[in-house]
Amino acid sequence: MEWSPLIVSLQTAGVATVVTFLTGIGLALLVVRMRRFQGLADAVITLPMVLPPTVVGFFLLLLLGRRSVIGKFLLQWDINLVFTWKAAVIAAVVVSLPLMYRTARGAFEQLDPNILNAARTLGVSEWRIFWHILLPNARAGILAGVVLSFTRALGEFGATIMFAGNIPGVTQTMSTAIYAAVQANDYDLAGQWAMVIAAFSLLFVVLLNWWAARQSKGADIWN
């Protein structure tokens, strides 16, 4: 059993989760504070979550492929995204970002705005409010978004195979390895990779539930 799909999957999901974490929190803050077009912005950001992954991959090809305006511009600098590991990361980011965004936005909207306003009246800067009030109080929702985004990126298939392909050792993730194994009628190998993905996903969800239970228990003690 060649382990490169596991390595590629973990690397892709890890980098994608970092990008998704930063981008998702930023977009959640932006949308929460928007006065106009909030519904439209929310719909655009959430769209990849409801579209079929193959459609997302097709749109990525149209947007970043060699024939696109962006793709032609990047080729002038010898930068090619299609069928590369970078493409796998981009696909994972696009499909997992809505999960991070939605959970972060929900966590921010549940906070009492009077707490933030009280800090502002005391002259606390927005940067300190973000780091010392907003993030600590929304950490449960944000952590849930991180776990969901990572597991979603880890199991991404449709957009990845459309935009990044299925190149062994380069873009072949565990999901695409399962597809290739089934195509080759190797159900034993496909089952092994399916179990690995299920085990990783289960592990992260269990850890999230364990952490949430500890936080809830701690809150009960102080209350």
Provide an overview of this structure.
The chain has 223 residues and is mainly alpha-helical. It has one domain (4-215): Orthogonal Bundle (MetI-like fold), CATH 1.10.3720.10. Helices cover 79% and strands 0% of the residues. The chain has eleven helices and no strands. It has helices at 4-33, 38-50, 53-64, 69-75, 85-109, 113-121, 126-137, 139-154, 158-163, 174-183, 187-222. Helix 1 packs across helix 10 (174-183) and helix 5 (85-109) packs antiparallel against helix 8. It is globular, with a radius of gyration of 20 Å.
Distance between the termini: 52 Å
Report the major sheet.
none
Q: Mean pLDDT across all residues, rounded?
A: 89
Spatial extent as radius of gyration: 20 Å
Show unreliable segments. Answer: none
Report the β-strand fraction as a percent range. under 5%
> How many DSSP H or I helices?
11
CATH-assigned fold name: MetI-like fold
CATH architecture descriptor text: Orthogonal Bundle
SS-derived structural category: mainly alpha
Overall body shape: globular
- Highest-level CATH class: Mainly Alpha
Q: How many individual domains? A: 1
> How many DSSP E strands?
0
Query: What is the chain-wise order of helices and strands?
Result: HHHHHHHHHHH
